Amino acid sequence: MERRTFLKSATAAGIAVATAKAGAQSSTIPANNPRPEAPGMIYRNLGTTGERVSAIGLGGYHIGKGPDAQANIQLIRQAIDKGITFLDNCWDYNDGISEVRMGQALRDGYRQKVFLMTKMDGRTKASYNTQLEQSLGRLQTDIIDLVQFHEVIRMEDPDRIFAADGAIEAAIAAKQAGKIRYIGFTGHKDPAVHLRMLETAQKHGFHFDTVQMPVNVMDAHFRSFTKEVMPVAIKQGIGILAMKTFGDHFILDSKTVEPIEALHYGLTQPVSVVITGIDSPAILEQALTATRTFQPLSDTQIAALLSRTQQAASEGKFELFKTTNHFDGTAQNPKWLG
CB 3.0-4.6 Å disulfide test: which of 63, 76, 238, 328 passes with 233? Predict the structure, then answer.
């Protein structure tokens, strides 16, 4: 069988098999689980998956920072109690501590209340499988709702992932085995890399469920994912996960935008989820306030906001994830790629 045909047929088969095994392996997390929805939170469809998730996602990186594990565990539960159902994480965040703390937080009935996502750095079948098993253990679950290929930031990353014995084969096999339900990818460097990943997937007859990308008030002015990648993802029915709303703290440091309006800008875009770092009760309340007060920005409001940020954004100096290796964990640790 040709590789393209194999990937396409395996993907189709995986949908049915993974759906069946989701119930068999974890009866508390059935396919398309009707998670509880809280008043004041916004919920949206996740692309064409049939899933409904909170429009604010709790970022996994920040939740693993700091020495007080119990405080972070409690913060995750507070976020869930307030209606946040989309949880972000990654195999490499804080050397695995982020996943460990999230796994501990999801005990006592919290797992079935959320849509759980994590990411793998591995580009080979072997490295992906090793990382996935570690993530399943840390997260204390037998099925992860969404697993994404992490940091697709190099033009050769799509080739490595879709190569023979590449990570895509491991992901499809994991889906068929009922260990994961959906497959996506992330990246923050250049929209050209995202577009190449989508093109490579199409060449192999594979459809991604989600794509994660920077969406913020400066992106429109420099290497714009919003302008270049978002229309392609929408056309293909791929759920868009927005990140880098604040670019860590650097976009806010520019003094061109306030946190709530930056979140409102992200929520106004045609995205399923805006993932934001939440590392304290105050920052959690900030995110909740953004949803409670949200009204889609008008074209006039968006134009005024983009005009205000244009000069600061023109060279990407506040979007360090595009212009430096400050956020490139896999560049600093190439062994993670396999």
Answer: 238
